[in-house]
Amino acid sequence: MQVQEKIKHLWVAVLAALVIAGCSSTATEPVVEQQPATEVAEVVEVVEVIEETGPGFAADNTTPVDSSGNPISRTFYFDFDQAIVSPADFAALSTHAEILRANPNRSVVVAGHCDQRGTREYNLALGESRAKSISAILVANGVSARQIEEISYGEEELANPANNARAWAQNRRAVVSYR
Amino acid sequence: MQRLIVKALSPMLQHFAAGLLMLSLAASSWADLDTIIIDQGVDDPIRIAVVPFALSEDLDNADNLAKLIRFDLARSGQFDPVAPENMLSYPSTQDAVFFRDWRILQTAYLVIGQAQTNAVGQIEVSYQLFDVATQAQLQRVSFNIGREQWRDVGHKIADLVYTEVTGVRGAFSTKILYVLAQDIGTQSARYKLQIADVDGARARTLFDSSEPILSASWSPDGRRVAYVSFETGRPSIILQDIDGPNRERLTNFRGINGSPVFSPDGKQLAMVLSRSGDPEVFVMDLETRKLRRITRHPAIDTEPSWSPDGRYLVFTSDRGGKPQIYQLELATNFLERLTFVGDYNARARLLSDGRHLVFVHRRNGIFHIAWQDLLEDRLLVLTESSLDESPSLAPNGAMLIYATQDQDKGILAVVSVDGRVKYRLPSSAGDVREPAWSPFLPDVVPPQSG
Q1: Which of A24, A148, B250, B426 could staple A75 via S-S, CB 3.0–4.6 A?
Q2: How far is residue B215's CA from residue B304's CA, in Å, rounded to a whole number?
Q3: Is A144:A123 a contact under the CB 8 Å cutoff?
Q4: Topology of domain A2-178, per CATH?
């Protein structure tokens, strides 16, 4: 019974992870991928092994998870021409900081992005400001600056190429990726 | 080919009419930009007749040559070429010209010409330009060209005719650089730095990458290009020959390496680096490779551009809270804010008179290309589309090319600096963006006699 509960719980977690993966983008793989169902089944099996000690990584060793094994948000959104982190994101960032403090040999790339509006080079600068805003919070939470690299892609790697308010909001983001 | 110029009607009708008048001249190979769509010209364009050139029997390109010249002149928006099927006669020598034929057609200027193969296998092309009202010959020029140089000589003739009639140097022989982005958002995304004739023809790839390319900038001699490439996964500034073998990574600092722009004398490169913590404008001496920091402000400072005399840099900064254009005198560090209308003004370029500025301007939430007279503080919005960016001036200062969106696709478009003439250069090969208009380039087909 308890095992069944656990699996149900994990399904939700895995689905959430897929949704997050679908919405986010990393330096090398800006692609929204359809995951085949078989892989989902595999992930469920491995995630089962995680012990409830503290935040860390899923079995793939790159997906950051909280102490319950739930993946934590890696994508943080911004307002137009702004690089101010929303207070709603502080909790997730503090969990990232906890993971990085506990794993000093691991590092993150914080990729800053902008929507299509405005000029490309200004957006390159703005994307960097966004990445730096995220990394400043990580450093304030005790992470060593050496564990963080900021890269700005400006408006060059869009999460959603459409030209409407919803797509623009999805593009104004910073993404934390572990390596 | 009737009148090429579509006057400004209602925007929808104008769009429709322009679609009907797509010209098929430029489309010759897959990589080229597509047919040019002329949206708008001046109210009273100059009537000119370019008669199909007579050619010796071994040649078969003479009509295309006249067509190319007509198309160049029409694209300027200032000329209304007579369609060949409406001509009453087809003279190729002065003896055969009956000026009455051209007065009836209300033609102000007449171009006739011929081409034949000479003893050493070159093609000898010659033309004459007449003022129909006075019957005076204004120009008589000949060229010796290779068989692959029809386009070169056509653009050159259009340049000389345009210069004679308008008093402004023609820029049809210039080139454009731009970025062609294909399959974006997929694993097979490609970014190609392209060079093409200014009408989009004869496109070829200078650099091809799976990572983004942006901010291409010509050296003033037209021999080199500086641009930003993400080929290492991070932005770096690349310096590359247009026609030679040299390609060099100039900067690869931590953070931003962006906005390279050659100084007017070609000896320095302005750029943006964030290695000191935030984006600042630097100038690199291209001989010694020494960097000099120009701006010192914790806000964003980016998109530098030189005044024509090299004494000033204009750049974008959000030090006032919103992006605006500033100008810095390099010798004195005297700083002046140039733009005050609107809450987003960026990526400025100064015209060669040093008095007028073109830049990206947001009005009612929409991004346009705007023009500003710095002495009279007059601002004119030149474009009506949205997401317009990257304005780049023609070397004669008459027009500028910019990037915009058409049905969610990146296209290039051209507008005259008075906003009266407009045409578009779409591409079926992918999204096209980041255009850079070349300086005047050395003659590839020098005139033999003037």
Answers
A1: A24
A2: 11
A3: no
A4: 60s Ribosomal Protein L30; Chain: A; (3.30.1330)
Most A CBs within 10 A among B281, B301, B303, hence the mutation to make, goes to B303
The CATH number of the domain covering residues in B43-166: 3.40.50.10070
Structure tokens belonging to residue B444 = 């590839």
∠B371-B374-B377 over CA atoms, to 5°? 85
- Across the interface, whether the CB atoms of A158 and B434 are under 8 A apart is answered no
Nearest CA-CA partner of B392 in B401, B382, B384:
B401
Strands A75-77 vs B123-131: parallel, antiparallel or unpaired: unpaired
Please tell me the least confidently modeled range out of A89-93, B382-386, B399-403: B382-386
The ipTM assigned to this model is: 0.89
Q: Residue A67, Cβ neighbours under 10 Å: how many?
A: 14
What's the DSSP call for residue B25? S
Q: Using CA atoms, how far apart are residues A24 and B67, in angstroms rounded to an integer? A: 51
* DSSP codes of every residue in B231-286: TTSS-EEEEEESSSS-EEEEE--SS-EEEEEE-TTSSEEEEEE-TTSS-EEEEEET
Cβ-Cβ contacts under 8 Å, B303 against chain A: 119, 121-122
Q: How confident is the model at residue B43 (pLDDT cuts 50, 70, 90)?
A: confident
Mutation for A interface: B344, B366, B404, most A CBs within 10 A: B344
Contacts of range A46-54, beta carbons closer than 8 Å, 24 or more positions apart: A47/A10, A47/A13, A47/A14, A48/A6, A48/A7, A48/A10, A54/A98, A54/A102
Across the interface, whether the CB atoms of B212 and A124 are under 8 A apart is answered: no
Q: What is the pLDDT of residue B63?
A: 58
CATH 2.120.10.30 fits B175-437, yes or no: yes
Cβ pair B113, B53 in contact under 8 A: yes
Distance of alpha carbon B270 from alpha carbon B274, whole angstroms: 14
Q: Looking at beta carbons, which residues of chain A come within 8 Å of B256?
A: 124-125, 128, 152
Q: Are B106 and B86 in contact (CB under 8 A)?
A: no
Q: What is the pLDDT of residue B27?
A: 38
- Low-confidence winner among A11-15, A146-150, B162-166, B381-385 (lowest mean pLDDT): A11-15
Q: How many Cβ atoms sit within 10 Å of the Cβ of residue B372?
A: 23
Segment B123-150 mean pLDDT: 96
pLDDT tens digits along B227-267 = 999 999 999 999 999 999 999 999 999 999 999 999 999 99
Surface of A (49-108) touching B: CB under 8 A: 81
**Smallest Cα distance from B202 to chain A, Å:** 27
Closest to B407 in 3D by CA, of B383, B387, B423: B387
The number of CA neighbours under 13 Å toward the Cβ of B209 is 19
pTM of the model: 0.85
Residue B80: helix, strand or coil by DSSP?
A: strand
Domain spans, chain A: 2-178
Instruction: Compute the distance between CA of residue B115 and CA of residue B389 in angstroms, rounded to an integer.
Output: 42
Q: B230: closest CA among A32, A27, A84, A161?
A: A27
